[in-house]
Structure formats: structure tokens, C-alpha cells
Design brief:
single chain, 4-stranded mixed β-sheet, 7 helices
């Protein structure tokens, strides 16, 4: 890890970071839902669903990034989560980004409360307190840290729904973007890793699972990272492995838990190999910007800029963002609210313009 020497002898205004996580797996018997298969009751657990949180403080400004291992988050639940985190930590709601890993075997949290199975009434009411508790723990464990970015390439791990895309889109699809946060003892405190592929490897299971992002984050944490936060990129036209439309003999066709393990461990391996190449710095001001409707947020920590939109987006979205913002080190997150289909061309144009505007607002 290339970094500046951290001086922790006196309090300072440079970057401080805290992390925490909580288990949010619903009880056995609760409904598993997702984009492909009918609702069914959970009969067991392959791996727990988690809420992971990282809190940043620098030059008197604070921000939080929260990730939930769920398919999506409804507008009302997002507001309740943001409000609970803000009330608990005193971080302004405009400085809080709430994302989902878009796990395809999930509690149905993207539905309005009236459309959720009845057993979820108490769960949905209690979840904001659980997530806010993790954010509070993260804010109480702030310590001097340095942040940097690095990227890696993951060829052949995913594919386009329709093959034979332009090379610039192939490059974007294969890119793994990392924001690496180093603590004062020269260890990696947090990795925020960004890859464009849906978390829908595991098929019609009745076991709770966070799919490959859960595997990858757990592997990174077992390797010594305090918290590993997955950001799903613009991936509405991407599929895992070689599951392109019309492939009659796809690999990993059974879609089992070991398939998700293989994908997640490979992703984690590449992330942990790339992370030491990040050049980290403590002088990392925090800046945030949010769209008027709350559907898009931008967070800058030092040189790293995270652009998050609640809407599903194809890989063109992130490729176009990089073209428009060539000097920005971007991590692009999409699809944390979930809709039945891709947004229209007009909506995508508007969303792209909004993201560029937000990035420019926090660029200086």
C-alpha cells in the first residue's frame, strides 16, 4: 500500500473513518422474493444478509455510505432509514447514501408496505433502528484514515445479455473499481468495490443468501478488511458468467450456492490483489450533492467520487459518465430502488445529465 505517513499524536481535521455492520436476515418462514421467481417461504440460511456502514469525517463534514444485502429499497423505507441514521448520528440526510447489493433472493423491501407480506410489518418498522445502530457504532469508532482509488480488470466473469458490444462497453463491463481506506496501522480498514453484474446467481432457493456480493464481502473481511461494501454498477444489460440470451449450454446452469461462492471468491481475490496499489492520502475533503427528487446522490472523498442513482441503468450509463468526466475517479452505483423495467430513453438522458451535474458540483 502506497500511503502518506499517518500522524495520530494530536486530533486533526483530516480524514477519519469508522465502519460497522449488522445482520438483517429475516426469520425462517418469512417470504423470500426477487426479480425472477415466485415468492416462497425461507426454510434455512446459506449466509446472512447484512447492513454495512462506513462513516467519513473530514474538515468538519460528515457522511455515511450504507449498503443492504437486498434486491431493492422502497422510497418510504429509504426515507425512514435516512431519517433514523441522521437522527442517531447527526449526519445530514443529504450526506447519507443508502444502496442495495440488488441481491435476487431478498426480503421484498422494494414494495410499498401495503404490498408486503404481513409478516414483514414489524421487520420493516424495526429495520431503520438496526441500520441506524450500525451507523452509530461506525461514527463512534472514527479513527485517522487515508483513502485512495485503484481499478482492476475481470475478463470473462460476466457477459452482456446481447453479445458483440463495442469495445469501450466491454472494458466498462470488465472493470472493477475500488476505493481503499487505510487505517493508521497500515491495514486496510474498508474497501468499497464497484462491479457491474446483477447479484442473481443463486436460483429458486428457499435459503436466505446474499448471493455473490455476500460471499465476496465475507471473503474480504476474513482476509482482514474491517468492512467490504459492494456497489453494483450500471448492469441492467449484464448477466453473470456466460448467461447471454440464447445460450443453450450456459456454465453454472444449476445456479446453486457453490456457483455464487465461485463468483464471489474470484471477485474478492481480484479486489484484495489490486487494493495495495492504491495511493492513499489523509487530506481528503468530503463533498456531497443530491438531486431535488432524491433519486441521485454524489459523494466525494478525496479523489474518489461515488455516483449513486436509484434507477436501473445499462452499462452505457457508466461509460457515458466516464466520457463526460474524464478526470474523475468514479464508482457508479445503480438500481437500488428497483423498477419493473429499464427507464425510458428520455429518463436515461435526464438521469445522466443529473449525475454529471452532481459530479461537477462536488468537483471543486
Amino acid at each position: 500500500m502506497h500511503s502518506t505517513q499517518l500522524n495520530t499524536s494530536n486530533p486533526d481535521n483530516l480524514l477519519h473513518v469508522g465502519v460497522a455492520q449488522s445482520t438483517i436476515t429475516p426469520p425462517i418462514g418469512f417470504t423470500i422474493s426477487g426479480p425472477e421467481f415466485d415468492d416462497r417461504p425461507a426454510l434455512g440460511i446459506n449466509d446472512d444478509l447484512s447492513a454495512r456502514c462506513v462513516v467519513f469525517k473530514s474538515y468538519g463534514q460528515s457522511s455515511a455510505l450504507v449498503s443492504l444485502d437486498v434486491w431493492g429499497i422502497s422510497t418510504s423505507l429509504r426515507k425512514n432509514l435516512s431519517s433514523a441514521i441522521s437522527q442517531t448520528t447527526n449526519i445530514p440526510q443529504t450526506n447519507i447514501i443508502i444502496t442495495s447489493t440488488a441481491n435476487g433472493n431478498s426480503p421484498p423491501l422494494w414494495r410499498d408496505e401495503a404490498d408486503q407480506p404481513p409478516e414483514y410489518v414489524n421487520y420493516v418498522n424495526y429495520l431503520p433502528d438496526v441500520v441506524a445502530g450500525a451507523a452509530l457504532e461506525a461514527s463512534h469508532t472514527l479513527e485517522p484514515a487515508a483513502v485512495g482509488t485503484v481499478s482492476a480488470i475481470l475478463p470473462n466473469l460476466s457477459c452482456f445479455t446481447n453479445p458483440n458490444q463495442p469495445e469501450n462497453l466491454e472494458t466498462e463491463r470488465e472493470s472493477l473499481q475500488l476505493t481503499v481506506i487505510q487505517s493508521s496501522d497500515d491495514n486496510i480498514k474498508c474497501i468499497i468495490y464497484n462491479f457491474a453484474c446483477p447479484a442473481t446467481i443463486v436460483g429458486n432457493t428457499q435459503q436466505w443468501t446474499a448471493d455473490y456480493p455476500g460471499v465476496a464481502s465475507a471473503a474480504l473481511e476474513q482476509a482482514g478488511v474491517d468492512a467490504a461494501i459492494f456497489l453494483q454498477g450500471a448492469s441492467a444489460d449484464i448477466r453473470p458468467f456466460d448467461w447471454w440470451d440464447g445460450n443453450t449450454k450456459p456454465s453454472h446452469s444449476e445456479r446453486t450456492w457453490p456457483d455464487a461462492q465461485a463468483f464471489g471468491i474470484l471477485l474478492a481475490t481480484q479486489a484484495i490483489r489490486a487494493a495495495p496499489n492504491a495511493i492513499t492520502r489523509r487530506n481528503a475533503p468530503i463533498k456531497t450533492a443530491q438531486s431535488h427528487d432524491g433519486n441521485a446522490t454524489a459523494l466525494r472523498i478525496g479523489e474518489a467520487t461515488i455516483i449513486a442513482t436509484n434507477q436501473p441503468q445499462p452499462i452505457h450509463y457508466s461509460a457515458n459518465l466516464r466520457t463526460a468526466l474524464p478526470n474523475t475517479k468514479l464508482l457508479v452505483n445503480a438500481n437500488s430502488s428497483v423498477r419493473d423495467s429499464l427507464t425510458s430513453a428520455t429518463e436515461r438522458t435526464t438521469t445522466l445529465a443529473t449525475a454529471i451535474e452532481l459530479a461537477n458540483q462536488i468537483a471543486v
